[in-house]
Amino acid sequence: MKKQFEILQKEIVYPGFFRMEKYRLKHTMHNGGWSAEISRELFVRGDCVAVLLYDPDADKLVLIEQFRAGAILQPDQAWLVEIVAGAIEAGETAEEVAYRESLEEAGCTVEEMVEICKFYTTPGCSSEWLTLFCGKVDSTQAGGIHGLDDEDEDILVRVVDFDDAYRMLENGEIISAMPIIAIQWLALNKQKLRQQWGLV
Q1: What pLDDT is recorded for position 105?
Q2: Residues annotated as catalytic (active site), given as ranges
Q3: Is this prediction's pTM over 0.85?
């Protein structure tokens, strides 16, 4: 049986910068037939990008640290170690945003960029679709506090040896999904990436 779903009703619950929609719907079942009518809320936001900034010459990562409202239910972890990320605005490509956000959030000019993968971040409740990149940078130029004042950003930039960053991941200092995925990808693909960038 072909997989299908049917939207019975859609309601905009909150029409802000981020939109909340409520749906009544039904869908086909794996064992045949249709589900009962179900109700689901959907957090709607545009497509986004994230960039792992990597200096292959020094084997260092440029990470950022900032306050995150989504983490306030665990107050001692409300400041998260992350990677550069941002929303795609109308008329922009994912790659253009990756270059822009790297400069805005970390003060880094990306020399080369490779796409790692695309994925839904939290498909149980959000429409966010993310393109993840790895960008080649010169980490000697990184550091300080960055971000846009009109977006109330307060972003601390940290340059970390790759091995130290991986240990941070293993011991629970990095607890946001995007840097976890990106750092694990780099651990598996570092040699291949260096060859792609002509460094081997």
Answers
A1: 93
A2: 151
A3: yes
Residue bearing tokens 């900032």: 66
Identify the CATH class of 48-196.
alpha beta
Cα–Cα dist 159/174, whole Å = 14
Query: Phi then psi for 46, rounded to 5 degrees?
Result: -70, 175
Residue ranges of the chain that CATH labels 3.90.79.10: 48-196
pLDDT in tens, 15-49: 988 899 999 999 999 999 999 999 999 999 889 99
The most distant pair of C-alpha atoms in the chain lies apart, rounded to whole Å, by: 60
Helix (H, G, I), strand (E, B) or coil at 193: helix
Please count the helices (runs of H) and the strands (runs of E) in the chain.
Answer: 3, 11
Q: Which amino acid is at 169?
A: L
DSSP state letters, 154-190: -EEEEEEEHHHHHHHHHTTS---HHHHHHHHHHHHHH
Q: Please tell me the distance from the alpha carbon of residue 51 to that of residue 42, in angstroms, as a whole number.
A: 26
CA within 13 Å, CB half, 103: 8
Flag whether pLDDT at 160 surpasses 80: yes
Is 83:52 a contact under the CB 8 Å cutoff? Answer: yes
CA distances from 70 to 12, 63, 74 (A): 22, 19, 9
> Phi and psi at residue 104, in whole multiples of 5°?
-70, -45
What are the DSSP calls for 67-100, one per residue?
Answer: E-GGGTTSGGG-EEEE-EEEEPPTT--HHHHHHH
Residue 78 has a pLDDT of: 92
